[in-house]
Amino acid sequence: MDAVQSTDPARRTVIRAGAVAAAALAACPRAAAAATTAPRPAAAPPPAAADAADLPLRSDRDSQGDILAGSRKDHACLLFLRFREPVLARRWLRRLLPQISTTEEMARFNAAFSAARTKAGGTDPASLSAQWTGLSLTHAGLGFLAGRDPFPALPAGSTAEAFAQGPAERAEALGDTGDSSPDSWLFGGEGPHRAVHAILNLAADDPRKLAEAVDRHQQALGPAQGVLVFRQDAGTLPGALRGHEHFGFTDGISQPGVRGFNAPDPATGNTVLGKPGARLVPAGEFIVGQEKAGNRPAGLPAWATGGSFQVVRRLAQDVPGWWAQARERLAELKRAGAAPADATDTWLAARLVGRWPGGTPVAGCPLAERPCPAGTGPTAVSYRDDPQGWHTPLFAHIRKGNPRDGLVPALGRPPLDPAVTDGHRIIRRGIPYGPAYDPAQEPGQGTNGASRGLVFIGYQADLVQQFEFVAKQWINEPDFPAGRNPRTGADPVLGPGSPVAFESESEGGSRATTLRFGRFIRTEGALYAFTPSIPVLRELAEGRLEVSLEVHPGTVLRAGDVLDAGAARLTLDADGDLVLLDPSGARRWSAGTAGKGSEAAFSRDGELTVRTADGKAAWSSGTAGHPGARLLVRPGGDAVVLDGDRVLWRAGDGDAG
């Protein structure tokens, strides 16, 4: 179909973005001046060219590639699998292992592809093609392969508890109610007889190669007594909607940078080179075992080290309904005098998302879409000077999902440092499914009768503090940001239907117009899975799984932190004493630092210490000089520092340490 003749709002706005560049720049004089007068900086060198010692995660051959590098393929297929016989399932896993893609493989290919694309003036290089394979396991799948429960304990409120329960059991708290309730899900809401054990994530540049891979993997299920519970095909939308989701907005623009993987900008030190405004977040927020924000303990078993928790959600989108709602609410705003008389439905839709369809942030150019000026980009988003949400509404999708530098703790107070949100970031790997909506056809006719939406895939090291926190405390919470009257409202794109306060500038300050939004995205399936490291998958293929809690080097325990391994709990008491407790709370061991200790730390050279408030050692395990040593809290009832298999220090079962 000729794009110029299209009347579909989503498609129309995407195509117009390039055609009205001059008018858009005129609408933003400061941006136009920057774009026309500022010299364009030289292209940043690809991160792969950086010193390997500075970016060690780019050469990681243990972690699976989609977590940090991303498959970045136009075609994908997720196979949701269940097995009947553990021995045969482990044999299947052993055969699959050589095909699983690593971070190093994906990072190397992506760097070469990007360089070739740049050299070709933005055209995808036909000579470079790849097919990737990833594997994630549910709580049931881990237990099935290992022949044991993956967790020695499930502390209330922990990620272990969330993972074991799964999103169906937690659906109400996550906003999956009504039409989005698990009763109607295509996967994830079934009973134990249809429980999913594994998710095989396949992606490729060439659809024929992907189809061949899917067929090959499905045939391999027979000898393994595996069952295909559900198959989810997905792919980049064609033509003008390439890189966009079904509503017509560019997707996947703003990802967190990862320390040790993404090159830092030397001018700031805390943002990604070539991506202004994209914060670098500690890698431990995405890969278990790496350094976390604030050096917080992961509190997870050793099998989690090197892996990441994966959230998979099938989100159906009602495209005509969503755009019709935007037109209706815009009419209400105009009647209230809160929108320009010449504003289009795209003007309001951009405020619901926080970006124009082509990706330009509303924060930088509130009047119309424009190309990003030289030296900036779609990641350069700031809300610091927009506390009332006059440019980017406080309820806008990208602002609710990541407040950036505009998180105000209370009215009238300055915004918090963006670093406070590092522990709530998620790496997203979404891809559309279903055909694009065609406005030339009647609703329900032809491809318009097909299901369409987004396959959401998110990676994080903590389900509770990352995905669930963002969903419950930000996206779905009408009172976030808190303390406003009227309340801000839930995210009108992804959240439950709710009224929102559309704030605009007036002579008396800020004027709020209440708009009521329905829900036009429906959850049709959801799963929590874990993407293990290659070494852990090898162990699982032999039926082994290390369930002792691992305290990773660089971790700091503060008063109240508890590492619960069931029969043994390591904690720093409120009085500063590092203690090992049994299930009844009785002490099995004490460092004797009551009244002196302020925090406990496990160093990178293998030493466990309790430090005073001024940083002096109040107690030490005496195990320094062993880089690579591991600190484990074991379900057998003790805590140990190990160098390989050699015990350097041990507490518990009557040992004084």
Automatic annotation (TrEMBL):
Species this protein is from: Streptomyces polychromogenes
PANTHER family per the UniProt record, alphabetical: DEFERROCHELATASE, DEFERROCHELATASE/PEROXIDASE
Domain of life per record: Bacteria
Protein name: Bulb-type lectin domain-containing protein
Cofactor(s) required, per the database record: heme b
Keywords: Heme, Iron, Metal-binding, Oxidoreductase, Peroxidase, Signal
Signal sequence, start to end: 1-34
Bulb-type lectin domain segment(s): 548-657
Recorded family membership: Belongs to the DyP-type peroxidase family.
